[in-house]
Amino acid sequence: MKQKGKLYLIPNSLGSDDLNAILPQGNFNIIKSLQTFIVEDLRTARRFLSKAGHSGNIDHLDFLILNEHTNTNEISNYLDGINQGKDIGLLSDAGVPCVADPGADIVTIAQNRGIQIVPLVGPSSILMGLMASGFNGQNFAFVGYLPKEQNLRNKRIKELESRVYKEDQTQLFIETPYRNNQMFESLLGQCNPDTKVCVACDISLDSEYIVTQSIANWKKLKTKPDLKKRNTLFLIYK
Amino acid sequence: MKQKGKLYLIPNSLGSDDLNAILPQGNFNIIKSLQTFIVEDLRTARRFLSKAGHSGNIDHLDFLILNEHTNTNEISNYLDGINQGKDIGLLSDAGVPCVADPGADIVTIAQNRGIQIVPLVGPSSILMGLMASGFNGQNFAFVGYLPKEQNLRNKRIKELESRVYKEDQTQLFIETPYRNNQMFESLLGQCNPDTKVCVACDISLDSEYIVTQSIANWKKLKTKPDLKKRNTLFLIYK
Question: How far is CA B93 from CA A165, B42, B67, B99, in A?
């Protein structure tokens, strides 16, 4: 019987062009050995594979598209090649696959079929923001997006802040990039003066900005960072 | 005025000797440029720096020890060199600094002093286990260790399981390696048959094992994985 292939989970850059700064050499070796990739966006994937030094003709690789337009029934065929011994790469558009990123559905199918899944190392704004925040890394929660509607969002911020104090748990969340400044203002308006907010922005880029201050100190700052359209992770802790 | 130095957060291997498989080339370049390292264990640090190709004489580097025996007052001097323009590396013993790992106290001091903190990319069992589990990566919590005492632990498992269903939040936790098998048995005993458990063990090693099954299916398995003394992350989700 032919040995089954594996599913490799392949991180991408967070926007930086210098892949050697953020991805291990071992990833490039694995990438070059693969012929089939599950990707979110074809153009982004091709650009990444070319920068990663894929030696084959990129036009002859097999690409399977996985994004919000993909039919759930289709997905279940994506891993069929693995039974014939083919390795497949699940490639993220930015950061690591499956964490604040699509891909978990594919991995669930792979787990159900007993396929070996190999996660590769790469940049994660959640992990790197947490490391650099100075906040509790023994107990933390990433909760994704908060509600858009202002009252609901304010209520959610208070809930998360209360979990910081009750459970000693760092709370991490994100916002659509063009609404980052409003989110920051909501945090300053809703949280306790002593509560600390870390703003972790453009992680791994030259413009990287990761600063922790108490709400009281953030309010005193004359020039606040402009977060508009910059990828930003918000963290709160005590 | 001399420019201030930076604090680099430097991940280590999770046990694998092949550093090129799990750390970017950029990390090695930064490591080689540093003369001062804050480390948990001197021997582990020296071994890592030598493998990472630190070209200087490792005996002439400055090492500052940060572990459970370190006096809190001492720590506050560790970053003084940064005012003189020196860059300092905070090096983990295993995985990334500050996440389920000491170091956050140093980073908090650095944040309070307005020091630039640069997190580097490296292997994290939490992140890689979550990626490969197939579980919800848009909403997840890592809660560290559960209580040792059996009744308290069982109660905590039920609490975490209830958060899975109520908040759609993946729950991640760890156990002291020699008690991993007991933890696994407690999960099988406490959780709903439909609840899924992912066991993520020896991540990034040749013996890597990351398998997700429902409680009902885990119970049916004749040979369960032996987790004793192997670094293991447990994840539960629905």
Answer: 29, 9, 10, 12
Cβ–Cβ below 8 Å for B111 and A212: yes
C-alpha radius of gyration, chain B, whole number: 20
**Triad B57, B60, B65: Cα angle to 5°:** 120
Which CATH superfamily does the domain covering A125-237 fall into?
Tetrapyrrole methylase, C-terminal domain (3.30.950.10)
> Would you kindly state where each structural domain of chain A is located, as residue ranges?
6-119, 125-237
Write the CB contacts of B73 (distance below 8 Å, at least 6 apart in sequence): none
Inter-chain CB proximity B101 and A137 less than 8 Å: yes
CA distance B50 to B237: 41
Return the residue of A nearest to B205 by Cα.
Answer: A118
Look-up: residue for tokens 């498992």?
A: B157
Q: Give the separation between CA B119 and CA A21, rounded to whole angstroms.
A: 12
The CB density around residue B65, as the number of other CB atoms within 10 Å, is: 15
CA distance linking residue B105 with residue B78, whole number of Å: 11
Nearest to A99 among B21, B105, B130 (CB): B130
CA distances from B177 to A191, B117, B180, B189 (A): 39, 32, 5, 19
Split at pLDDT 50, 70, 90, the class of A1 is low
Query: Which of 37-56 (B) contact A at CB < 8 A?
Result: none
Supply the CATH classification number for the domain B6-119. Answer: 3.40.1010.10
Contact A91, A119 (CB under 8 A): no
Residues of A in contact with B101 (CB under 8 A): 137
Averaged over successive runs of 10 residues, the pLDDT of chain B (238 residues) comes to: 88 96 97 95 94 81 91 88 95 94 92 97 98 98 96 97 98 96 97 98 97 97 92 98
Contact A100 B137 (CB under 8 A): yes
Please answer yes or no on whether B123 and A118 come within 8 Å at the CB atom.
Answer: no
- CA dist A187 and A149 (Å) reads 14
ipTM of this predicted structure:
0.96
Distance between CA A207 and CA A124 in Å, rounded?
A: 16
